[in-house]
Amino acid sequence: MSLESKEIYVGTVAKKEEEIKLRKNFGWKYVEDRNHGRSGGLHIVLVRVEGMKNYSELVSLENEYDDCKKKLKTYNKIVEEPEDLLFIFALFIMLIFPLVIYCAFKSNQKQKIAENNAKLHKRMDEIVLEAQALL
Predict the structure, then answer these.
(1) Average pLDDT in the 30-43 region?
(2) What separation in angstroms does the CA of 98 have from each of 66, 86, 91, 106, 108?
(3) pLDDT (tens digit per residue) in 85-117
(4) Is residue 41's pLDDT more than 80?
(5) Which of 9, 16, 46, 64 ranks highest by number of CB atoms within 10 Å?
(6) CA angle, corner 26, sides to 20 and 32, nearest 5?
(7) How far apart are CA 47 and CA 28, in angstroms?
(8) Largest interatomic CA distance in the chain
(9) Coil, helix or strand at residue 75
(10) 19 closest CA partner among 72, 75, 62, 51
């Protein structure tokens, strides 16, 4: 009987207990912890006997479980860090200022057009009156 070993990253002690409990369902037995320094985090070492009853079925079920776990989607909050909030604020400012400037420009343009049209309508009315006086 040969042994199969596996090292799994768990990160924290709380997740360690959860992972050990889960992997027992697939025939694994806990052996030891391995700490890979500050950036590596906490890993656990597990072993199982390759000649155990229903070994191939357990392996296929474990692989299917791991595939499903990899496909899980997570919801990410819009603001997780203060830097994200600063980025959103800067983006908001970059979008709002051009919009305000555009609206002010269009409003000014509309006002000038209205003034011009009013002058033209006044002149057109004067022209009509002059034309009527000539008749």
Answers:
(1) 79
(2) 49, 19, 12, 12, 15
(3) 778 788 888 888 888 898 888 888 988 998 998
(4) no
(5) 46
(6) 35
(7) 5
(8) 122
(9) coil
(10) 62
pLDDT, position 79: 58
Residue 85, token pair as written in the block: 């909030």
- Alpha-carbon distances of 86 from 43, 77, 83, 97, 119, rounded to whole Å: 36, 15, 5, 16, 50
Take residue 107 and report the two structure tokens written for it.
């409003």
Mean pLDDT on 41-57: 88
CB under 8 Å to 52, separation ≥6 — which residues?
Answer: 27, 58
The amino acid sitting at 106 is K
Q: 119-123: long-range contacts (C-beta < 8 A, 24 or more apart)?
A: none
CA angle 25, 26, 32 (to 5 degrees): 90
pLDDT given at position 47:
93
List the structure tokens of 123. Answer: 């002149």
The rounded distance, in Å, linking the Cα atoms of 37 and 42 is 8
Which two three-digit tokens encode residue 81? 């860090």
Is the pTM here over 0.85, yes or no?
A: no
